[in-house]
Design goal:
232 residues, globular, alpha/beta, single chain, six-stranded parallel β-sheet
């Protein structure tokens, strides 16, 4: 079936040290978060679904949710306490929520890391229900190079085998607009695995830590502009 994630090699910029450095930066931003940027396009009241990353939950996206609500979007969080990956239960739960909130019209999705993988999966299967997606530090090529590989291996028995077998489909071009935000200072995912060369995608580099990308001023500006462009 093949690996979903592998540990960084000797020549990789990623390591346990890079992960800890990323976490320290994230703690600093959490303690003293930057102010929300101003003078951005306002939301139109439409729904934006936020999907958290691996080993995080809704709590990791509360600041981004507050920012988008302030712009006038109807923000929905998937009630995830701890994202353990592509388990059958988590995929089914997300699909049910997606169908419920998209029944009233096209939605937009912002996915962080693994949440962005989930967003791409939904966009591939149901493009008519999505007007655009934004991914934050989301790797689209497997196996993912990350110092978190031991944690991935630990929970891998829970993962949906059929999804794992089709994981390479995530990199296929999408028919909906995509904004892929990445950081060359990412300490957890090799940023080169986050780039999408499809014509439907805009890759935007933001300098900052992986873990709190959605809380950074420049990332929030890019997200707001991307959501404003993806008008149904």
């Amino acid at each position: 079936m093949g690996a979903v994630a592998v540990s960084p090699g000797r020549d990789s910029p990623l390591s346990l040290r890079s992960w800890l450095r990323d976490v320290v930066s994230a703690v600093a931003i959490t303690i003293s978060p930057p102010p929300f940027p101003k003078n951005l396009p306002l939301g139109d009241g439409r729904t934006v679904l936020l999907i958290p990353g691996f080993l995080t939950g809704d709590w990791s996206m509360t600041r981004l949710a507050a920012f988008l609500r302030g712009l006038g979007y109807n923000v929905v969080l998937p009630a995830v306490v701890l994202n353990l990956g592509t388990t059958t239960k988590s995929l089914a739960k997300l699909d049910a929520l997606f169908f419920e909130i998209s029944a009233r019209g096209q939605i937009r999705i912002v996915g962080q890391v693994l949440g962005g993988v989930f967003a791409r999966r939904l966009a591939q299967r149901y493009p008519e229900r999505i007007s655009g997606i934004v991914t934050l530090c989301t790797p689209i090529r497997f196996p993912v190079i990350t110092p978190l590989e031991p944690f991935v291996r630990m929970v891998s028995p829970l993962h949906d085998k059929s999804w794992v077998e089709r994981r390479d489909e995530i990199a296929r071009p999408l028919s909906v607009p995509v904004t892929a935000i990445y950081s060359e200072h990412d300490g957890i995912v090799d940023w080169r695995q986050c780039l999408d060369e499809a014509t439907s995608c805009e890759n935007i580099r933001i300098d900052g830590p992986h873990t709190t990308m959605g809380s950074l001023t420049q990332a929030q500006i890019a997200i707001a502009n991307a959501l404003a462009r993806s008008v149904a």
